[in-house]
Amino acid sequence: QAQLVESGGGLVQAGGSLRLSCVASGRSISDKKMGWYRQAPGKQRELVATITSFGVPTYSESVKGRFTISRDNAKNTVYLQMNTLKPEDTAVYFCAGFFASWVLPTSWGQGTQVTVSS
Questions:
Q1: Cβ pair 20, 34 in contact under 8 A
Q2: Residue 2 pLDDT > 90
């Protein structure tokens, strides 16, 4: 398993942008699917985006067209570029690694808070 550390969260006005980073240590992520999830207060954790080891992304309908997931295997890092942010994007964002399963993440970061003000 890898240790995952997120950064890049913060407070931004609606319509603004943020870029989240997730740096992995302990093993290479180059051959694994990676993803971003988020959890808003009082809500269940939900999938935001995933990216395969070949760089193929998928997105939830709520962020499609606004968020972009990418990876830099040389840096063992996954990114989430978030544009046109909305107040409903406010949540703790978690990096996830699908190290033992294609379906469910098996490693999680500690999360980074994203707050979008209206």
A1: no
A2: no
Whole-number Cα distances in Å, 26 to 2, 29, 38, 65: 5, 9, 24, 33
**Tell me: the pLDDT tens digits for 57-96?**
999 999 999 999 999 999 999 999 999 999 999 999 999 9
3-state SS of the chain: helix, strand, coil percent to 5? 5, 50, 45
Identify the H or E element spanning 72. strand 67-72
Q: Is 100 helix (H, G, I), strand (E, B) or coil?
A: coil
Q: Are strands 57-59 and 46-51 parallel, antiparallel or unpaired?
A: antiparallel
Q: Are 24 and 35 in contact (CB under 8 A)?
A: no
- Among 18, 1, 10, smallest CA distance to 84 is for 18
